[in-house]
Queue: 2 jobs
Job 1
Amino acid sequence: SIAENPIAAPPAAFPPSPTTWARRRPVLRQAQEPLAEGGPGGEGHPSIAENPIAATPAAALAACTALLHLSQALASITTPVRLWVVTAGAQRVGEEAVVSLEGMALGASLWAFGRTLALEEPQLACRLLDLDPADGLDGQVETLLAEVQHASSTLQVAWRGMLRWGATVAPWPATPGYAPHAAQRLQLERYGALDALRYVPLATPIPGAGEVLVDVAAVGLNLRDLLNCLGLLQEHYAQVLGIQRAQDVGLGLEAAGIVAAVGAGVDGYAVGDRVMGIGGLMGTLATQTLMPANRLAHVPAGMALADAATLPITFLTVWYGLVELASLQPGERVLIHAAAGGVGQAAVQIAQMRGATVFATASPNKWPLLRQQGVQHCFHSRTLDFAQEILDATGGQGVDVVLNSLNGEFIAASFAALRHGGRFVEIGKREIWSLAEAAERRPDAGYFPFDLLEVLASDAALGPRLWQELLGHVAAGRLRSLPHVCYSADAVLPALRMMQQGGHVGKLVITFAPSAPLRLDPQASYLITGGVGALGLQTAQQLVADGARRLVLSSRRTELSAAQQQAVAELEAAGATVAVVGADVGEGDAVQHLLDRCAALGPLRGIVHAAGVLDDGMLAAQNATRLAEVMRPKADGAWHLHRLTVGCELDFFVGFSSTTALLGASGQSNYAAANGFLDGLLLARRAQGLAGQSINWGPWSEVGLAVARSAHLQRQNMGMISPAQGRVFFHNILVQKTPQLAVIPTQATPRSKPSRADKRTHLRHELAALPHQASRSRLEAWLRGEISQVIGLAAPHTLDANAGFMDLGIDSLMAVELRNRLAAGLECTLHPTLLFDYPTLESLVVYLIEHVLKPSHPVVPPKAEVRAADEQPELAPHDLLAFIAQEFKDLT
Ligand SMILES: NC(=O)c1ccc[n+]([C@@H]2O[C@H](COP(=O)([O-])OP(=O)(O)OC[C@H]3O[C@@H](n4cnc5c(N)ncnc54)[C@H](OP(=O)(O)O)[C@@H]3O)[C@@H](O)[C@H]2O)c1
């Protein structure tokens, strides 16, 4: 999958532009030279102005042809030049809504072309830059200039609001130990770093008195989960709860799901009920969990379980804080910190429902959303200026109530914004003021620090009462579930990273798939384009194995080979009705004909788009005609299928794409562009709630397009996907509904690297044994790797040694993780302010050499918990990317 992480903070001040992005096509000038016959704009091709819907693949072809011609022209000149391919909305960053499906399909084909261009013409130093489609070009000119002037070595960059993102290929499953359909729970192997999370098997828990066993469907993530992983609540867990080991910490505070069993003395809940609530000590990040009945509520009819998972912690916290404790009144002013977060969003709703005026802090890129929600007063959440600005905005009076979740000096600043005699509700945990401190510094103010879990534990009747009040407002439509982004259970790590980077709005929800096996509808029809091709027939076999009985396989030919006839006969022998229909999917009418044949067999429920052709050649030998021929089945075909199935209720629409689109491949620029279009279209469909999945296949053995190259691939020590493996992957991808997944066969040896265990154990000794300069280089390389892990940078060598950590996007929670990693790796303790005191890679290297790695500095023996991480996979994501890129370089 492509995981995208912020890689650097923005330059100082980029005000968000209120204008909307008017042009959704990539900002790329078309080459002036005439296109080859039959190319876009040539005879028989509709122009974009005439028919925007049908013209999208033609526009992609035009853009890629322009890029081809431009690169050919640039390759022939001797003056050094650099090439930026600039798009807007060509990438989907995180889980953002897609503004333009057409723009994303078109832009993704350009990006895929650009990846190959970067491989084939390294002297052009081609860079791909995707601007924010929600912002006008005027508002991003400075961003563009900064990118061009900075000349970063990061190949793929996207800007969204104030954040700069870089694309990386992340291993799947992203969370180790995950097994689809198995009973499991998330476990923290050691405190300190997020990559110490893994799934472990779970024995069915038995509910005790007052408890309910819940099949978990969705879990709302909370900051506390992140703080837990980073070890920032370690002391609290040890002292208050008596939990000493990281493995025993229950992760996940809340959940929504289905009641599986009830314990003694539980009234009001029965097996099969849909419930939501706050969990117990075992944690809710598990396929099943025990929840105290008095913290549960029934999910309102019609509310999805993922929506329900956004309610418990947020709304109970805010209701208790603002209504029960602070008794917020109509007409009062309330300051809500982090108003775009989960608790913040619940607070905005409750405050507005009570008739209060909201003063909100948030990152500026989230202000438009808050304004849409009716919040007039927005302030920056990362500076202390809000205090004075609020006083200015209220004629020096300040707010009546503060809902605080920030720490450090933000607390004093928030008190400064509180009017005389106001109420200060504190829901933070770290570095908060004690009652005595508040009484001394602000004796006039009411001070209400609380921990919801502790309050609920001390008053058994409180939970049911709060729920009853809240659900009355939900039922009346006065309160709604929160905006959220869902991550599947195996992607809990990327979700926590998203929380760490603060890139989301509302809640992050982890979903656990129900363990029902895939059953296709025997009455429905399923279409495979390229269905009598090699992978098409394998796919047909798998669909029939999964229950499909009515198949339409498309081919341009009417005569089948003997092998194809036999394969079709085997499908029929397995009970399927198979129609082989002649159609060129590059033609809209032909695709309509295919769909009519499907409808005659039964309602169309699934599409696998496997039609495709190759026409390899280096860029210098490529032209518009060759590009068009390769894009025709993939891009035009996918587009026709997309637009002609708008009314169909599809369970799946899977595109057979290639790793070439993801990584580039010399000699396959046309094929990469075609597959890129397919990826972009399907990802955009998915983002818009339509069926859409893209599989970036690596080479298959025995059958298909890559067989001709198998000897070459073997010499390169490349793995290949056997047909049996391919069918299993296809099945699993259908079950898991993964939007985009690359299946990349690699051979473990002989390039395998020393394990992380070896690396960690020997690092300090290794550094000590090396001559000074070599030791310094080794340390710096290791630090680059660790920093890159935390910020999600794919190419550690590109990290600027003199860039400030803050500028690289490292905020306080990331700094905690990084310091923990360094301390574990160097087997020492490091000061909490290390990364603030030594804020660049360069200064950190100097400090570590002079003060930490000196033989006199005590070595702290690694803890047992630290050793547990030695079971990590051998290749870190950035190593994996480099490895894969190298392996695929020669895939022609
Ligand atoms: N094999 C691999 O290792 C591999 C790796 C990555 C991705 N893929 C992708 O997986 C898909 C299947 O590959 P494969 O190895 O099975 O190749 P294949 O055996 O050549 O099958 C592709 C099929 O696409 C059909 N096709 C081509 N142009 C068409 C058009 N305009 N209209 C309708 N059908 C058209 C061809 O059918 P007719 O000739 O019968 O018309 C052909 O049978 C391709 O899209 C390929 O890009 C394959």
Job 2
Amino acid sequence: MVVPIVDREEIWRVLRDLVAIPSVNPAFPGGTGEAEVAAYVRNYLESNRIRCIEQPVSEGRSNVIGMLPGTRAGRTLLLEAHMDTVQTTGMTIEPFGAKTASGRLYGRGACDTKASLAAMLVVLGTFARSGRKPTIGVHLAAVVDEEYRYAGVARLAQAIEAGELRYEAAIVGEPTGLSRVVAHKGCVRFRIEARGVAGHSSDPSKGVNAIEQAMEIVRYLREVIEPGYEALRHPLVGPPTHCIAQIEGGDAPNTIPGACTLTIDRRTVPGEEPLGVWKRMKTDLERFARETPGLALAVHEPFIIDYAMEIRTDESVVGRLAQAVNLVKRGTAEHGAAYGTDASKLARVGVPSIVFGPGDIRQAHTDDEWVELAEVCAAADALAALIANYGNEEGEEETA
Ligand SMILES: [Zn+2]
């Protein structure tokens, strides 16, 4: 079908509206939740006569899914974007001012990821108003809680796994500068506790200093574990990494510390199972403790795990999206990313997923977050072309 023209003014208006509505994740300072944005999304879709369902996730927090039917039953593309943002602490602009200047729109969430959400919404609205159905059906899932615990996409993935919803591919909206993230890392985060023996610090020989034990662990991780990462290097996302992100230890200035806890953020590459990575590290650390006189430690269960993701480059959505983007911007590419997204949770339930959207990831979570309006429009044009052409090629002529 002919690619419908997406109205720039409408994209700007919807993006301004979305940014002006606070939707800070409730896990963060000043967190208001996503309810008001969800109501806006629902109202936009319904006023364009697009059927909507809500997926309750937790008290007062629901995903909204808009459903644009296609002419070919059983084929559906998923567009997914999160509605929550990080906190506004320390911002140097009005977080919800939604001011525009020099072609940019400023505010919390402008780039991450309300720009993607606005582009997706207006594309769906445009198709619905055009009165012509695309070959492929399209669902837009606006989800909660991407910035903290991924509860929104987890609920969506559950419905997919249960067979209530079926998608042949997904585009996950995040600021990629219109490039396509086809692989990204996962993570496993856990704590390692060095266990010493507390005592009066006037005679350090009478105790076991847990902070000094923790130093041994840090050294072991750097000198023995880290060099093994290179062999696991992935062509798109690079090698695994770990970061000792937090350290806590000691009770008082005159006491030999009896405990010291390290928090590790280990980033995984596609092919690594986060829980398996944790188990291996636990085994290695326990062996190290047995071989090191005086060292006692405990490796705690992970408190966060997230999966890495990778889409096979011969999945048809990869080429289709590249083609659609090439119509609006030259020089974009497929690449890997070190950060995590909702895409890995969709990939885990069998939906080939690509991360794509307007804006630069370097602008996400910043003190003066902004997005280039022209790029939001280009993303919308690319999504419109993707949908209009999806399933229209050889032997797949429209049936209605
Ligand atoms: Zn995001």
